[in-house]
Write a structure and sequence with these properties.
63% helix; mainly alpha
């Protein structure tokens, strides 16, 4: 959570400083995905069951992605 909150706070202040509030959910989802990937990267080496669980959880993070923007996997980093 520490990794997520640090990144989310940066995005929040960036939005406030630039008065740019377009697609805020997607900005925070990008931060969450980066934090999730950092946290789970070594767990995926533990076998197929772990990989399936990680992918299911990653899908849950992406579930509220605003479809008007590119998929989180295709989006540029925020």
């Amino acid at each position: 959570m520490t990794r997520y909150w640090a990144g989310a706070e940066d995005r929040f202040w960036e939005m406030v400083d630039n008065d740019d509030y377009g697609s805020p959910d997607n900005r925070f989802i990008r931060v969450a995905i980066r934090a999730f990937e950092h946290t789970t990267s070594q767990h995926e080496m533990r076998g197929p069951r772990i990989i399936r669980a990680v992918e299911k959880a990653r899908g849950g993070i992406s579930a509220s992605w605003d479809r008007a923007e590119p998929d989180p996997a295709e989006a540029d980093s925020a």
